[in-house]
Amino acid sequence: MSNYRPSLDRLAQLAQARPNLLAGPLKLYQEQEGLDDEQLAARLGCDVEALARLALCERPRPAPHFREDVGRIARYIQADTVQLAMLIRAAETRESLTRTTGASSPTLLAARDNDDVEEADTDDGNGIDDV
User: Fold this and answer.
1) pTM for the complete prediction?
2) For 97-121, what is each residue's pLDDT tens digit?
3) Has residue 88 been placed in a domain?
4) Per the domain annotation, does 128 fall within a domain?
């Protein structure tokens, strides 16, 4: 059985290029959060060995099936359903932001947007900055 694990890990790496699987968004989430496999598994409440199986799962369908699909995946990898749902939503959001903006970090993008708002707030039209 120990010979099977490295093959599963290799498949999970290859699956990152498959848009219908969870491997890509999960890897992006893990990188952006700075989590190693042990930390990610702890966040999900599952074993580290379950992460490769999770990466090979199909993405949950949109509502109204999302909850059912996440529950099925959580049972399969023996993870906390709520934590898995939140992680999948966050991972897919990060993937979407990265894909549409080309930004490497949604956090930096949000910070940049916030700076633009603050600059607009300080200019009251009278030519004098409120500092």
Assistant:
1) 0.69
2) 877 765 555 455 455 555 444 444 4
3) yes
4) no
